[in-house]
Amino acid sequence: MVKAKKFIIKKNFNGFPEETDVQIEEEYLPTLQDGEFLCESLYISVDPYQRCYAQKVGDVALGILIARVIESKNPKYLVGNHVVVDYGWKTYHIHNGAPSMWGIPPIIIDENLDVPLSYFLGVLGHTGLSAYFGLLRICRPKPGETVIVSGAAGAVGSIAGQIAKIKGCKVLGVVGTNEKGLWITKELGFDGYINYKTENVSQALDVLAPEGIDCYFDNVGGTISSQILKHMKVYGRIAVCGSISNYNDTEETKIPAFQITLIFKQLKMEGFLLTQYVEELDEGMNDLARWIKEGKLKSKETITKGFENTFKAFTDMLKGINFGKAVVEL
């Protein structure tokens, strides 16, 4: 029998997650039944969205993983296959191939793409695909337009900004440190950055984008987004991917009203989930893989080693310590 470790929710998060909110438990997995396969976890993704979903005490902490199939009684998932799978923070898991809570079954990784496996949690995974569909389906940037991305040094934002550059746009990023700002401009090709901790976002945009913003890819929400909306051009488009500035609030956040701006500038503002684009995932992954091969798209990972350090990697990500995609390597 295989002994697995798992992080379970010991206490519901109230504000910023605390180490005492989770605990590691062990369990012995049963013998495989027909249609099942045994997964060995290799990489765990830690992401802001995990903070949004209410979990019950005793639940396994949410998470998407890269796993290796080590035993199988399912003809679709063969021993040796690497899969992107959603079963939470566990070292081993028995799966039957059913779709996850988002309607996506375990995805067999195409080994011919010749990229690190961890990329399938980031630039070729749910974060890269969120950037791809949010930017291209909602913002629909045109060559020569000005695009701004908040959370620009994060997993989704760093990819969204690079895709906008590929599409011929001027791209600005909002970040929390000058080090991150230099990374997105010098390494990723962004045209400018705003450090929201040391600069007034609205005043900075007067200088960086005096003619206004055409597209906004929003990862953070809050007052930063309220300031950016004032600088949108008429008929501007906003893709709302996340609101990380509010995830750990214990009271309802008060931000300036922006509805008048939406009305008079006739803006399009739309939230989205990756599940909307399940039928188009192959298209997105093929484009992202091609851009990587052509050297147009770069990926940076912050890798934490050791299953026991998964919770620390999660809270470090929420604090904005990571550059690019935050991943745990087991």
From TrEMBL:
<protein>
    <recommendedName>
        <fullName>Prostaglandin reductase 1</fullName>
        <ecNumber>1.3.1.48</ecNumber>
        <ecNumber>1.3.1.74</ecNumber>
    </recommendedName>
</protein>
<dbReference type="GO" id="GO:0006693">
    <property type="term" value="P:prostaglandin metabolic process"/>
</dbReference>
<dbReference type="InterPro" id="IPR020843">
    <property type="entry name" value="ER"/>
</dbReference>
<dbReference type="GO" id="GO:0032440">
    <property type="term" value="F:2-alkenal reductase [NAD(P)H] activity"/>
</dbReference>
<comment type="subunit">
    <text>Monomer or homodimer.</text>
</comment>
<comment type="similarity">
    <text>Belongs to the NADP-dependent oxidoreductase L4BD family.</text>
</comment>
<dbReference type="InterPro" id="IPR045010">
    <property type="entry name" value="MDR_fam"/>
</dbReference>
<keyword id="KW-0521">NADP</keyword>
<keyword id="KW-0560">Oxidoreductase</keyword>
<keyword id="KW-0276">Fatty acid metabolism</keyword>
<feature type="domain" description="Enoyl reductase (ER)">
    <location>
        <begin position="19"/>
        <end position="328"/>
    </location>
</feature>
<dbReference type="GO" id="GO:0047522">
    <property type="term" value="F:15-oxoprostaglandin 13-reductase [NAD(P)+] activity"/>
</dbReference>
<dbReference type="InterPro" id="IPR013149">
    <property type="entry name" value="ADH-like_C"/>
</dbReference>
<keyword id="KW-0007">Acetylation</keyword>
<dbReference type="GO" id="GO:0005737">
    <property type="term" value="C:cytoplasm"/>
</dbReference>
<dbReference type="InterPro" id="IPR011032">
    <property type="entry name" value="GroES-like_sf"/>
</dbReference>
<dbReference type="InterPro" id="IPR041694">
    <property type="entry name" value="ADH_N_2"/>
</dbReference>
<dbReference type="InterPro" id="IPR036291">
    <property type="entry name" value="NAD(P)-bd_dom_sf"/>
</dbReference>
<dbReference type="InterPro" id="IPR014190">
    <property type="entry name" value="PTGR1"/>
</dbReference>
<keyword id="KW-0379">Hydroxylation</keyword>
<dbReference type="Pfam" id="PF16884">
    <property type="entry name" value="ADH_N_2"/>
</dbReference>
<keyword id="KW-0597">Phosphoprotein</keyword>
<keyword id="KW-0963">Cytoplasm</keyword>
<keyword id="KW-0644">Prostaglandin metabolism</keyword>
<keyword id="KW-0443">Lipid metabolism</keyword>
<dbReference type="Pfam" id="PF00107">
    <property type="entry name" value="ADH_zinc_N"/>
</dbReference>
